[in-house]
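User: I need a structural model of Acyl-CoA thioesterase-like N-terminal HotDog domain-containing protein from Trypanosoma congolense for a docking pre-check later this week. Nothing fancy, just the predicted C-alpha cells so I can convert them on my end. Input:
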Amino acid sequence: MANVKQQIKDLLAVTTQCTVDIVLRHARLNVEEVRVLPTDNHFGRNADGGDTAPNFEESVIEWPLRPSVALASPLPLLWSGDGEWLEQSECWAVDQGAISFIIDALTSFHLAIATNLKHVSISLTIDFVRPLVAERPFILSSRLMRVGRRICFLSAEVHQQQGDRVWLCARGEHAKATFTRGVQVGNPGTTASKL
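Assistant: Understood. Predicted C-alpha cells for Acyl-CoA thioesterase-like N-terminal HotDog domain-containing protein:
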C-alpha cells in the first residue's frame, strides 16, 4: 500500500497546478488515508500458479476528502434524513463542476496507478443524487471495471455522512482511451496531458 501512496504523490508532483489546487488544497485529499480495497480479482495468478502478480482490474480505491467552501455555493436548508434540517452554516453544497473535476482526476489517477498507460478521457457521465455538503468528510470510491486493449472503463461513487446516515451523493462512469506506451511515474518529462 505504501507503494500506491508514493505513486499518488508522484502523480501529484507531475500533474497540473489546477489539479493540485483543487484535489489537495480545496478538496483536501488525505493521501495517507487512501485505501486500496481487496477484491476477488485483486491478485492474478503468475506463471507458476502462485497468487503474487497484482491485477488491478476490478480494484477499488477509496479516496478520503473534505471539501472547503471554496468549491461550494450556499444551499437552502437540507433535510438530513433523520428528522432534522442541517444547520444553515452547514448548508454549502459543493458545485457539481467541482465534483465532476474531482471524479475525473481521481479515476484518472486510479488508472495511471493500475496500468501505467497513457490515457485520455472519452466520456464522463455523472448522476448527481444528493447535494454534497462542504466542510464535511466524504469518500470517493473509484473502481477499475475493465481494462481493454484500447479502452478502459471506471466507475466512481461519492458517499457522505449527513445526519445519522451515509448518503450516495453522486455516481459516475468514466471511459478512457489508452495508448500502448506506458508512462513512467516520476519521469521529469511526464506531464498531466500525457496521463
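Before docking, keep this in mind: Confidence is low (pLDDT under 50) at residues 42-53, 186-195.
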